[in-house]
Amino acid sequence: MNDEIVLKNGRVFDPMNGINGEIKDICISNGKIVEKVSGSAKEIDLKGSTVMPGGVDMHTHILGSKVNMARMMCPETNRHSPYLATKNTRGGVGGITPNSYVTGYLYSIMGYTTVVEPALPPEKALSSWEEIEDIPGLDIGLLPLFGNSMITFRYIKEGDVNGLAAYIAWILKSVGGLGVKVVNPGGTYAWAYGGNIRELDTPVPQWDITPRQIMHGLAEAVELLGLPHQMHLHPNNLGKVGNVETTIAQLEALKSVKGHKKGRSVVHLTHMAFDCLGMVEDGKPEWKYLASAGEEFAKYFNKNKHFTTDLGQITFGPVMTMTGDGPFQFSLYQLTGGKAKWANLPVEVELPGGAGIVPFNFVPTSPAHSLQWATPLEFALNVDDIWRCVMTTDHPNGGPFMKYPLVIAWLMSKKLRGEWIEKAHKLVQERSHLSEIEREYTLEEIAITTRAAPAKILGIERTKGHLGIGADADITVYGFDSEKLNLAANPEKIIKHFSQAKYTFKGGVQVAKKGVVGKHLHARVFSIHPRLDDGLSIRSEKEIADMIGKWYCHSYENYTVPARYREHLEIPTEIDSTSISA
Amino acid sequence: MSETRKTIENVPCTFCGCLCDDLIIEIEDGQIVKNTNGCAISKEKLLGCNENRLLQPLINGSPVSLDDAIQHVAEIIASSRRLLIYGLSSTENDAHREAYKIAELVRGVVDNTSSVCHGPTILGVQSSGEPNAMLAEVRNRSDLIIYWGSNPAAAHPRHIPRYIKKEGEYIKDPKEDREIWLVDIRRTTTARMVNKFIQINPASDLEVLLTLRALVRGHVLDVDEVGGLKIDQLKEMAEHMKSAKYGTLFFGLGLTQSRGSHRNIDAAIRLIQDLSAHTKWTMMPMRGHYNVAGANKTSTWMTGYPYAVDYARGYPRYQPGEYTAVDILANGEADALLNIASDPVAHFPIDAVEHIKKIPVINIDPKINMTSKLAEVNIPSAIAGIECDGAATRMDGLPIYLKKVIDPPEGILPDREILRMIYNSLMKVLKK
Ligand code: SF4
Ligand SMILES: [Zn+2]
Fold it and tell me: Which of A569, A574, A572 is nearest to A138 (CA)?
């Protein structure tokens, strides 16, 4: 077969299979990694190169109305980043929010092959599928939003977890979702009347239910269904000085949720950089009292295994903040004295109040920004189980994904951290422990935090995040020899190599080579379709149809994303959730 | 009921930005015979979908085969140096994709009709942002609605009856619980449907908006009257707006196309943003063509920019005022025009139309319009949402899947297919 390839003599880092820097051949056939190939397979000699599974980004905002609003509102962020069309690829712009084509290409160039868009308003899913048609070179997962939906609220209020599970199942099937996202539960709903909810037990206006109940109910429903990815949570009280306390309280409240598999976490806390702000002793929740809580949170993380997390690392420079946390975004806008642009996008019934977008700039001269930068690094360098800790920037919130190589370099090189601590505000040395930390991530640890761990947490580890037999042939080859190059001492080399893979293979096809994308591959979408008990299904569909009829102003029949936009892209996995009774 | 009669429910109406998706369409012998729920415009559009059709491609007015027409189009485009592709707002999203692809291939300019309607709204958003609204949220929650420079009774006939005068979850009695204002320079038919009509002087929108903003911020103003309104009346308005629980501003071309243009929008946005510090306020442009919001969206994800996109350098650049269709024509820059689902000859200013007369025009449209009369090549297409499916975007950003309810006339293809054929034969011509 002529699509067979053998990658010879590369030094392989494949933590899921316990391979740590061994010279090993990898055989590819039909887009998969196989035991062996025929003699006619194409051979590529990778002597002196480093081989890892394709990168997995479990939290990146690359599509949907908020991204398009950001592009439309801020053409200036893309103006100076042209990306030329070639014979094989499309043109575009590659600033903080690249257009769809270039988003795919830039990921391919860095060696990433799988990404998850973590904020899908379910009723707008059709547009997302249209956009995915134009995002090349990636396997994509979508996480629909549930934490402020009136339909969720109704089931929570009635204490009907089975009904809630059936609603989740129906949405996942209707829109092609992979898991459940919860943003500021109840708080964004309160924003529909200009409010917010910062505490676990404050009732949601008009509903008389609390964030604790919403979160707990949704996590339970996820486990009842047996979804491969646990509830993906953006907590209440985001971006508030001292919020590490409320975040820990939220995580504590989820401890009692029973996981469907032994030893598995029941919640993924996303972008901890924004959720774990510390406060100096006797301080007040104001910016001047900000301190890093990275180490404090790492201690909690090391002791409590019921959750996983990703960093949402802040990088210095211009960013585009966008979250389903409308009140947080408004407070950010007010923080600029109303000088920044501020957009707000409500989603009827499903995210009343709405998501916000504010362009922002993190500068090293600011004490607050510097401490926010130090916090996730301090955390990541103190965790003892990297399998539960994923490198992200919450693109484009903490920084665009194109800055991952810089974040990797910070994790791997104390030398580089020292240089940046020098550039940052001096409070970083007083109110964080970052400068004292000796630890440097190894290549194996980088392979875990950028590949193996996110694949496992997303529940796609059968085919993603590793290079064992049966895995998808998503492979990144970096052009350095880890035996010869001291990375920690040469952080600029880390940035160089991780910015530009020597080769990126996606499903056995070479998509990029040394910064040049040679193939425009169609995306694929992973989704979960839970199969329900018939009785539950019938009851739930009727209830959902009634609620849509009453609360929305388009029809139930037109809600589902039609097959014609999905069938050539979607790879649905059916799971058996029939044990949930009606 | 005869065998050839059938009924299709939940059909979206592809006329205005409301994209009402509750039409019940009855079909007999392959023809639409009844449209229930649609407004008068919708009925006319659907029942009259066969009127004024062009049934065969034309080159210089003479019927030709589709293949010959496509071949001729490819030759025109290949020999042009600065192609302008324009229109798109009255067709579905897949057609847009093909249009951008052609623009990129020949390094042309692509613009949609928002450049002559809500383009200033986008410029306003680019300076300030925008706290948006969504229609069911307005219906469920909004207790104060303001229409400004918009006449929905004529242009969006079901906007008020379907979204505003209907009860919502938290507005049980819309008559009692919801107040509607209209701000305009003349008493339009909409005035009869609102609680309060506020007439302002022509071209005074900016002053009135800025005054309201100052009053909301608590400034004392030493004037008696602004834009024809007494200062006390303006104060009362500002107070009322601050005390609403959930306010919504719908604005139309009366605001974007009058004196002040994007500055009016910027002022309106800043007013709504300031009000947001007191209570909930949202806003929404009353988008006209059913898929103009979609044209901005597809352009944004595929090119990075919402309209006025130039590929001359092999990558997209954005410059309203320069790459906008009217400007590129009036400046005499475009040397060929590919027009899709719009009628620039009927709507553009005279100097732009004068230039259209001088260059080869390719017109793709289901119907005969003013532009077809000037076009060197006319290719008829299927009507999206009636004769072919597709996706479109409601004025508030909701994507809706459009249905095919009847077959197009014999041999007539959707826009996207025609554009794909043009792309393919262009590739062949360019290779030579
Ligand atoms: S209001 Fe607009 S979309 Fe609704 S039926 Fe009338 S023309 Fe069609
Ligand atoms: Zn995020």
Answer: A569
C-alpha dist (Å) from residue A415 to A405, A420, A423, A437, A489:
15, 9, 13, 11, 7
- Whether A118 maps to a domain, the answer reads no
Angle of helix A367-380 relative to helix A414-423, nearest 10 degrees? 170
Strands A5-14, A42-45: pairing is parallel
Which CATH code is given to the segment(s) B53-117+290-431?
3.40.50.740
Over residues B30-76, the pLDDT tens digits come to 999 999 999 999 999 999 999 999 999 999 999 999 999 999 999 99
Q: Please name the residue whose Cα sits nearest to atom 1 of ligand 1.
A: B158
Domains in chain A: how many in total? 1
Domain carrying residue A496? 5-53+466-517
The number of beta carbons lying within 10 Å of the beta carbon of residue B338 is 28
Using alpha carbons, list the distances in angstroms from residue B23 to B7, B19, B403: 10, 10, 11
Domain residue ranges in chain B: 6-45, 53-117+290-431, 119-285
Residue A30 in tokens: 């039909």
Q: Where do the H-state alpha helices sit in B80-160?
A: 93-106, 119-128, 135-141, 152-155
In A, minimum Cα distance to B97 occurs at A134
pTM of the model: 0.97
Q: Is A293 helix (H, G, I), strand (E, B) or coil?
A: coil
A-B contacts (CB, under 8 Å): 190
> Residues for chain B: how many in total?
432
- A288-301 pLDDT tens trace: 999 999 999 999 99
Please write the tens of the pLDDT for every residue from B255-300: 999 999 999 999 999 999 999 999 999 999 999 999 999 999 999 9
A147 within some domain: no
Give the Cα separation of A315 and B281 in Å (integer): 33
Query: CA B133, CA A353: separation in Å to the nearest integer?
Result: 9
Helix (H, G, I), strand (E, B) or coil at A511: strand
Whether residue A481 is contained in a domain is answered as: yes
Task: List the structure tokens of B351.
Answer: 């100097």
Contact across the interface for A83 and B315, Cβ inside 8 Å: yes
| Domain B119-285 fold | Dimethylsulfoxide Reductase; domain 2 (3.40.228)
CA of B224 to the centre of ligand 1 (A): 42
Which H/E stretch holds residue A212? helix A211-225
Q: Looking at chain B, which residue has its C-alpha nearest residue A132?
A: B301
